[in-house]
Design a protein that fits this description.
This protein has 10 helices and 8 strands. The protein is an alpha/beta fold and 305 residues long. Helix 7 crosses helix 10 and helix 9 crosses helix 10. The protein starts with a strand and ends in an 8-residue tail after the last helix.
C-alpha cells in the first residue's frame, strides 16, 4: 500500500523546508513506499523542494484547489494531507500506514495528532485550550478513537483512500477561506458511505509551527465563520454544527471582559476556565457566520440586527 502525501503551500519557505526535511527520510520506511507532492499556491517567492519530491505550481486559488491538484497527480492508494507548517515526527508515515493496514481497506480515514511546536511557538494556556477543545483542534473531545465524528477531519494530519476521495469529487473549491472545506468533504463521504468511519491514531504525531495570539485568532475565527456560512448554504442540516450567528453588531461586554482577562494572564502561564476562552473568541465566529449568511442567502431570510 503506497501513501501519497499532499502538501499545499503558500509563502512559508522556512516551515515547508522543515516539514520536508522531517518527511522525506520516512518515504521509504513504510511498506509499499510513499511519495510527497507539494503544490505551490501562487507563492510570492516560488517554493523549492528537495530531489524526489514532486512540485506542482498553480496561480493562487486556495488550499482546496491545491489539495485537489496534488491528489489528481498522486499515485498512492492512500492520500495523506499534511500542512506546510505541520512537521511530522519520527514514525509518522508508519503510523498512518499501519492504521490503514490493520483495518478494512476503503472503509476508513485516519486522523493523526497535531500539537504545537513548542520549539518555535510559545505555548500558553490559551493555545493549549485551542488545541484540545475544538476551536483549533479538539483532541480532548474524542471519546471513541475507533469512531471519530466527521467534524474532526483535519487536513493538517489526516489520510484516506484515494478512491474514496475521488468518488466524492474531492474538496469543494467554492469555500472562501481555509476553513470548513475539510469538514464538508468528510460530511459528503460519511453521508454517501454509511460504513465509512474515521479512526484516531495518536502515534501519527506532527508539530504545528503557527504562532498565534488572541487578536490573530479572533480574526481567524471571523473568517472561519464566513466559511461556515458557505457550509450551511450547501448543507442546511449542518446549521446546528456551526452555531448561531451574532445579532449584536458590536462586541458584547462579556466578550470584551473575557478577552481582557485572557490577554492579562495568558503570558504569565495562568490557566482560565474554558468558558472564559470560549467567550473571548465566540462572538467573532458568530459574527462571521452572520455576515456570511447575509451574503450566501442574499434576498432570502433576513437576519435581525
Amino acid at each position: 500500500m503506497k501513501l501519497s502525501v499532499v502538501i499545499p503551500t503558500k509563502n512559508r519557505p522556512g516551515s515547508l523546508a522543515r516539514v520536508l526535511a522531517a518527511l522525506t527520510p520516512q518515504l521509504n520506511a513504510v511498506p509499499g513506499g510513499a511519495e510527497a507532492l507539494v503544490v505551490d499556491d501562487g507563492s510570492e517567492e516560488p517554493a523549492e523542494v528537495p530531489p524526489g519530491v514532486v512540485l506542482l505550481r498553480q496561480e493562487a486559488a486556495g488550499p482546496a484547489v491545491a489539495r485537489n491538484a496534488g491528489a489528481a497527480r498522486a499515485q498512492g492508494e492512500v492520500l495523506l494531507f499534511l500542512g506546510d507548517d505541520t512537521e511530522p515526527e519520527a514514525g509518522f508515515l508508519a503510523a498512518h500506514a499501519a492504521a490503514h493496514a490493520a483495518r478494512a481497506p476503503e472503509q476508513i480515514a485516519v486522523l493523526g495528532f497535531t500539537s504545537w511546536d513548542a520549539e518555535r511557538v510559545s505555548v500558553t494556556p490559551f493555545l493549549r485550550w485551542l488545541d484540545a477543545y475544538g476551536a483549533q483542534f479538539g483532541y480532548a473531545l474524542l471519546t471513541d478513537p475507533e469512531n471519530v465524528p466527521f467534524r474532526f477531519f483535519y487536513t493538517s494530519n489526516v489520510s484516506l483512500p484515494r478512491r474514496v476521495f475521488q468518488a466524492v469529487g474531492g474538496f469543494d473549491t467554492s469555500f472562501p477561506e481555509a476553513a470548513w472545506e475539510d469538514v464538508e468533504l468528510a460530511f459528503r463521504i460519511f453521508r454517501e458511505r454509511p460504513a465509512f468511519r474515521m479512526v484516531y491514531e495518536p502515534r501519527a504525531r506532527a508539530r504545528h509551527d503557527h504562532p498565534t495570539d488572541l487578536p490573530r485568532f479572533r480574526a481567524r475565527q471571523y473568517r472561519a465563520g464566513r466559511a461556515a456560512a458557505v457550509l450551511v448554504g450547501k448543507h442546511p442540516e449542518l446549521e446546528s454544527l456551526v452555531g448561531a450567528p451574532a445579532f449584536s453588531k458590536g462586541r458584547p461586554f462579556s466578550s470584551v471582559l473575557a478577552g481582557g482577562l485572557v490577554s492579562l494572564v495568558d503570558g504569565l502561564g495562568v490557566s482560565l476556565p474554558g468558558r472564559i476562552y470560549a467567550a473571548a473568541i465566540g462572538w467573532d465566529a458568530a459574527a462571521g457566520l452572520r455576515d456570511g449568511l447575509l451574503t450566501v442567502r442574499g434576498g432570502g431570510r433576513t437576519l435581525p440586527g
